[in-house]
Amino acid sequence: MGYTKKHCQDGEKIENKPTCSVKWFSLKKGYGFLELAEQGVSNIFIHFSLLESVGCQHVAQGDEIVCDIEQGERGFYVTKVYSVNSVTNQPQDIPLTLEETTGVVKWFNVLRGYGFIEADDGGRDIFFHTGSLKDLNVDRLLHGQRVSTKVLFTERGREAREIRFINDDEAQAEIQAIKEATLSSEAPSSETSAESSDEKLRFVR
Fold first, then answer.
1. Rounded CA gap, 80 and 77, in Å?
2. What share of the chain is helix, strand, coil (3-state, %, to 5)?
3. pLDDT lower than 50: segments of the chain
4. Where are the alpha helices (DSSP H) in 36-167?
């Protein structure tokens, strides 16, 4: 699985940039460490979001990354990724089994039908779709609701399966209240309905 090298927008040549090799990377945690052997630099921190900027979803030990690095108070870290050259065929730390975890609903869009759960384990946010809510008999989750879910690790990140409410009765009541409030706000008032009826009668006459 290889990735196309991408040049930076400001026109700098990536040939002048250091090429680091992946020492360790965890898709579950969303970060890893690189090393620059020729200069004796190791444990260079890299966050998953920098890989996403060049269309890369995962790296494994030994993969080569052309990047900018800086030194901070806690050590070296990557500030920008220019290209990724994968030397492995499969991600190494993606388990084939589902893991159980808990978290809080961070965001959900009813119209788009998906959202994210902020996991208690401190790893990357967990993506979920309305399809994973079918066992709950609801069509949405609310911000701040606590849930448990089985997590599938994919090349795109963590995805929720079989979501459950930690406090089912309370969560169901909250969702029902929101839906009723929404329907109430959309329903026409009695005065508006009466005016509409008068208009229809005048039109018929």
1. 9
2. 25, 40, 35
3. 1-12, 91-96, 190, 192-194, 196-205
4. 48-52
CA angle 92, 35, 19 (to 5 degrees): 95
Query: Which pLDDT tens digit goes with each residue over 59-84?
Result: 888 899 999 999 888 889 999 999 88
Q: Are strands 146-154 and 126-129 parallel, antiparallel or unpaired?
A: unpaired
Phi-psi region of 162 (alpha: psi -120 to 50; beta: other; left: phi over 0): left
C-alpha to C-alpha distance for 51 and 30, rounded to whole angstroms: 10
* Structural domains in the chain plus CATH codes: 19-85 (2.40.50.140), 98-165 (2.40.50.140)
Four-residue CA torsion sign, 84, 87, 88, 89: positive
Q: What does the DSSP assignment read for 145-172?
A: -EEEEEEEEETTEEEEEEEEESSHHHHH
